[in-house]
UniProtKB/TrEMBL annotation:
UniProtKB keywords: DNA-binding, Phosphoprotein
Annotated DNA-binding residue span(s): 125-222
Name the UniProt record assigns to this protein: Response regulator transcription factor
Residue numbers of 4-aspartylphosphate PTMs: 49
InterPro entries, alphabetized: CheY-like_superfamily, OmpR/PhoB-type_DNA-bd, Sig_transdc_resp-reg_receiver, WalR-like, WH-like_DNA-bd_sf
OmpR/PhoB-type domain sequence ranges: 125-222
One of the record's GO cellular component terms: protein-DNA complex
Keyword Manganese among record annotations: no
Organism encoding this protein: Streptomyces griseoaurantiacus
One GO MF term: phosphorelay response regulator activity
């Protein structure tokens, strides 16, 4: 997969998430770098920022699709006007607006590849486990003590990040950055606390308390 994003922090988060899901990722920060990379390697998919320092990601998408007709193209951008979306979807496969959830990006890239490639090229990530908790990375379902835990996509993303960092305390700022893709969230934001309470409420009937709070620091798993 080719990832083209000029904001280094966003590119790093996306690349880590995609590699975790078994995608082979090469990154570029400009149109020129992207074109140079595809001279040497032919990716199955391209995840392109629309606003790049040396050009328009949509024009890059057209150029890449002309070179590689079977390439799956997904755009990521802060532009959300209907005309922008319709125009990009005229030659792309999907369009994701910022701010976005990392899990949404992975899921939508996987869905695009499912439509454009045979199943044997899709990644098959193993389940994540922590104690009696299991997260199925193929179906995005959660189980505790063998029983299904009904989670929303955001709740799943939050729990998955905690599981990945099991045994460690993660700060509110880290959760906002990795789960909600916020770089500069308002200090008064309570979105993390709200979703932590949702998770606790759903997990509590199935076993002992799982999510711990380190006051003034962050959250972790018991």
């Amino acid at each position: 997969m080719l990832l083209v994003e000029d904001e280094e922090s966003i590119a790093d988060v996306l690349a880590i998430a995609l590699r975790y899901h078994r995608f082979q990722v090469m990154t570029a920060g400009t149109v020129r770098e992207a074109l140079a990379l595809t001279e040497r390697v032919r990716p199955d998919a391209a995840l392109l920022d629309v606003m790049l320092p040396d050009g328009d990601g949509r024009a890059l998408g057209k150029e890449l699709r002309a070179r590689m007709p079977g390439l799956a193209v997904v755009f990521v951008t802060a532009r959300d006007a209907p005309g922008e979306i319709v125009g990009a979807l005229g030659f792309g496969d999907d369009y994701i607006t910022k701010p976005f959830h990392i899990d949404e990006v992975v899921a939508r890239v996987t869905a695009v590849l499912r439509r454009t490639r045979s199943a044997d090229v899709l990644p098959h990530p193993p389940p994540l486990r922590y104690g009696d908790l299991e997260l199925d990375e193929t179906t995005y379902c959660a189980h505790r003590a063998g029983r299904v835990v009904e989670l929303t996509p955001t709740e799943y993303a939050l729990l998955r990040f905690l599981v990945r960092n099991g045994g460690r305390i993660v700060t509110k700022e880290q959760l906002l950055r990795h789960v909600w893709a916020y770089e500069h969230a308002p200090a008064e934001s309570t979105v993390v606390e709200t979703y932590i309470s949702y998770l606790r409420r759903k997990l509590a009937p199935l076993g002992p308390p799982l999510i711990t709070t380190r006051r003034g620091v962050g959250y972790g798993l018991a």
